TrEMBL record:
SUPFAM superfamilies: TPR-like (SSF48452). Coiled coil: none annotated. It is found in: Plastid, Chloroplast thylakoid membrane. GO terms for cellular component: chloroplast thylakoid membrane. This is Photosystem I assembly protein Ycf3. GO terms for biological process: photosynthesis. Seems to be required for the assembly of the photosystem I complex. The gene is ycf3. InterPro entries: PSI_Ycf3_assembly, TPR-like_helical_dom_sf, TPR_rpt. TPR repeats lie at residues 35-68, 35-68, 72-105, 120-153. It is a peripheral membrane protein. Belongs to the Ycf3 family. Transmembrane segments: none annotated.
Length: 171
């Protein structure tokens, strides 16, 4: 039984049932249904902190999924999982790949910004102020990309841009 069908709470069970019905009623191939199942299994494992299992499921989904838009979400979640594992460079690569396939994925831009900001803070602690500024500037650029499609989202990022004087570059 796929992991996504072993959910214990009502909302997850309901989502799984609706998703399964949708997959059966929509004109999808067996390959697409399999990719979707692996993707949902990855999300389930990721939400439970089972990152190695999540990555295995996401990689299986990537081998099966051919749609660029759908692949962007898989890549984004692989990036999130690597971030959770502390592998920030690898996470940035996957978020970048997700944006290459779907430039309308502000959450990938936001996560890239968070990683760059974190690296900027690390550089400060190491005494590398010039490097920290470069990371903060890169974070600001990614936050601007995340904010642009819907200015009502990412309020915390907007506030950080204002506090650091980088918001004026956004206008």
């Amino acid at each position: 039984m796929p992991r996504s069908q072993r959910n214990d709470n009502f909302i997850d069970k309901t989502f799984t049932i609706v998703a399964d019905i949708s997959l059966q009623t929509l004109p999808t191939t067996k390959r697409e249904r399999e990719a979707s199942t692996y993707y949902r299994d990855g999300m389930s494992a990721q939400s439970e902190g089972e990152y190695a299992e999540a990555l295995r499921s996401y990689y299986k989904a990537m081998r099966l999924e051919v749609d660029s838009y759908d692949r962007s979400y898989i890549l984004h979640n692989i990036g999130l999982t690597h971030t959770s594992n502390g592998k920030h460079a690898r996470a940035l690569e996957y978020h970048f790949q997700a944006l290459e396939r779907n430039s309308s994925l502000p959450q990938a831009s936001n996560n890239m910004a968070v990683i760059c900001h974190h690296r900027g803070e690390e550089a400060i602690y190491q005494g590398n102020l010039d490097i920290s500024e470069a990371w903060f500037d890169q974070a600001a650029e990614y936050w601007k990309q995340a904010i642009a499609p819907s200015p009502g989202n990412y309020i915390e990022a907007q506030n950080r841009l204002k506090i650091t004087g980088r918001f004026s570059l956004f206008n």
